[in-house]
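> example.struct
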């Protein structure tokens, strides 16, 4: 097969302790999935159906790379999250079978141009410019679920320049991962290589150039990036 120009390289994540890499298909993100974060964003944390937005796969920042501060924004926020990586997929996946499709887990940052997201909300427009911009998804290497299991509790945190900014527990998720996978699979055909960013705890705040972001999820791993 020939192409009119060279196709872009496959976007992939490392796998801890392995040379093989995890090829990424799509990135799905669930919104307001911790009660305290919902409250700090001015929303009722009652258990309503989950909602999702997406980031392009090539928005990933991998292998400890830096996060370039984006243009057209002066209010970029950090959001630390547990990331689930799917090794298989399908449609209408039963909740009881959802975890069978999870290959492994990592730690990610849903970087957000909050000012552009806020403008989009006011105008009833999509969030793409606020959420799906270049380099908006720093992510750690993955750990296989076969090695660490499927975490349902454990500390999740983020430090900025050594100061604690975000802290929560996976047990505080409003929608569990099996529920997210089951619901998401009614909206899209999930595939091997899909990532699901599962939501962020309270404490989101702005970053500036030079900030060092270090965070993690207990039992899963850590992530470090520098804002440049």
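> example.seq
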């Amino acid at each position: 097969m020939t192409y009119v120009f060279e196709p872009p390289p496959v976007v992939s994540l490392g796998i801890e302790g392995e040379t093989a890499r995890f090829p990424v298909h799509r990135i799905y993100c669930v919104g307001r999935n911790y009660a305290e974060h919902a409250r700090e964003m001015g929303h009722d944390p009652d258990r309503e159906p989950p909602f999702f937005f997406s980031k392009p796969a090539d928005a990933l920042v991998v292998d400890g790379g830096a996060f370039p501060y984006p243009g057209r924004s002066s209010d970029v926020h950090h959001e630390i999250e547990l990331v689930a990586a799917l090794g298989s997929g399908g449609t209408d996946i039963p909740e009881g079978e959802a975890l069978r499709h999870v290959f492994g887990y990592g730690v990610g940052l849903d970087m957000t141009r909050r000012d552009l997201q806020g403008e989009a909300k006011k105008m009833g427009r999509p969030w793409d410019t606020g959420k799906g911009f270049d380099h908006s998804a720093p992510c750690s290497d993955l750990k296989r679920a076969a090695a660490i299991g499927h975490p349902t509790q454990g500390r999740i945190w983020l430090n900025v320049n050594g100061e604690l900014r975000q802290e929560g527990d996976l047990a505080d998720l409003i929608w569990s991962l099996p529920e997210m996978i089951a619901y998401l699979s009614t909206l899209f055909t999930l595939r091997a290589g899909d990532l699901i960013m599962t939501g962020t705890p309270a404490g989101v705040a702005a970053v500036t150039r030079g900030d060092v972001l270090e965070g993690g999820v207990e039992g899963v791993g850590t992530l470090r990036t520098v804002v440049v």
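> remarks
Residues 12-226 form a domain with the Fumarylacetoacetate hydrolase; domain 2 fold (CATH 3.90.850.10).
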